[in-house]
Amino acid sequence: MTETAKPMTIAGENDSRHHLHPYTQLRELEQEGPLVIVRGEGVQVFDEHGKAYIEGMAGLWCASLGFSEKRLVDAATRQMSTLPYYHSFTGKVPGPVTELVKAMIKWSPVPMARVLFANSGSESNDTAFKLVHYYNNALGRPNKKKIIARNKAYHGVTVAAASMSGLSTMHQGFDLPIPGIVRVSCPHLYQFGLPGETEAEFVERLAQELEDTIAREGADTIAAFIAEPVQGAGGVLIPPAGYFDRVQAILKSHDILFLVDEVITGFGRLGQAFGTQVFDLKPDIITVAKMVTSAYVPLSALYVSDKIYQAVADASAAIGIFGHGYTYSGHPLACAVAIETLRIYESDNVIGHVQKVAPSLQAGLQKFAGHPIVGEARGLGLIGALELAADPSKRLPFDPKRGVGAYFVRRAQAHGLILRVLMGDVIAFSPPLIITEAEIDTMMERTALALADTLAWVQSWRD
Ligand SMILES: Cc1ncc(COP(=O)(O)O)c(C=O)c1O
Hints:
This protein is α/β, with parallel strands linked by helices.
């Protein structure tokens, strides 16, 4: 390590008593303290004691190019020393915005008219929620405002994004969701299929539920349907064949917009540039974040269709201004890093690499199917999950109070692998896109060790 690359921690001062940690059981943390990560190299990160971990989640599904991509550091440095900040309000724009929009439109999986920037996935989905309102007001349809969102969806934590999300811990205590969100089922056969139900029958049942929901609410009250192509934080839920075809036909027949949240799936996670291509989606808005900058700096964006743009532009003329924008919308630092990230994806053929190594991840996970505490192994591209189960043959989950998934993740960490437990003892895998087959093998070896430890622990308390 060079002198300048020294981690910026002060010896003995990793006391985080004054940090209010996000997504953490705060009382537990007061006792145990955090794991302090100080350095990264390739797909690995290092804690303050020098212990190395494979980052099996790319942080939060985002550090696609790993933790030491110098070309991104250089792009950031160049931009910081040229124009560290400018804004995009009132007809101005920092230079890199124009270049990034051009690159992003080239990447767009379907024809899109405009790109609108924000700073996080949550903000982009909150903005989508607002745009849908603005659009229907512009068209003189003030009652067409409800959003259909799915159980176990994750769209972020701001007020509208959390409301559209379908995970109870995001609502409890916050007085969410706000009114106007209509919930439907999520397409996960393992958890929600009826006994003996085939995949095709399951898809048909969900399609009927959507039709019934629209009929009950009235199509003239429903503005949009929002979905992640593969649900991430809800449990890495891969939709069954035909699901999105049925959903899209129904939305189209009722003039309901389709908002596709590609915050995790955008820019190669599934082995194609977007989930939109994988599932042949026809979105009106696509939200992206995370891998657009390899997570090195915050940036998110919305791709907006011409149909929506035209209505929004007319409304801005009628109102006098499009009254929306963040101080940091299109921040030049974030844009410069995003431009370089997209350039690297192309020059290094990162998506080709994902297609090459993804079978190793998927085959590695499938080897655990049939393990005494694995209910389902699933995945697509470089995302996957092991759903732990007390009785796999009956798809019976563990008592959540046992914390079996959390135990597994602690054991994986002890073996040098960072993974994440999602609700229902689902262990998620979403490594950096640059991971090699050899590193995937190591990740699987450590997974096997953690599973063996977890099985032994489970056997120690159950009869
Ligand atoms: C699908 C999806 N949408 C939105 C978000 C929210 O993004 P952020 O945490 O950047 O606000 C996430 C975060 O994980 C996500 O997975």
